[in-house]
Amino acid sequence: MKASEKLQFIKELIHERAQISPAGILKLQLKDQPSFPVGEQVLVLKKLEQGDLIKDLNVIGSAVSFWVISTFGNYLQENKADDDLVTLEIGTNRLSIHKHTGTVRLNTIEAVLNPKSQELETILKLATAKNHQISYADILGEAVSKTTKRNLTFVIRNLKESLGILPAKKAKNKDIIKNIKGVGYKLAS
Known about the structure:
Helix content is 36%, strand content 26%. The protein is an alpha+beta fold. Helix 4 (118-128) packs across helix 6 (146-162).
């Protein structure tokens, strides 16, 4: 896990808990993550305290308490003014796509797709289409056939794997890319 991902992980954890109980001291029991041990989580919290985003950090083993100065709502929001960034809410899910870098983020899972890939082209079409729904012809153009539809299912599967939707047993996100039988695909919660 990169340093920026660790920082984002802690910010989202604080934001999630502060939304539930925004007043007073926030208490958390830190847990070891595969690539983000408790010791490093405490270092991130200390960095947030130095940045005046939290105060009065108290660490006892893996338990921490602190005052939340900000619920990090401003820090979690993507810059919607950026023309290269497409951001949308799908039920309780947040999807953001950077058109030129190929960075796609669904909630806390981020993937970098090839900017010229069918996966990025497909998710961009879904995100920008009316009602977030596209037909096979919208995606495939004139070349709609059994073979091209089958190939499209592989593109969708790759996209779902990148966004932590598949494999289903290890899913980190709910499936937001729904197949409309005989028509195409839709983004839905």
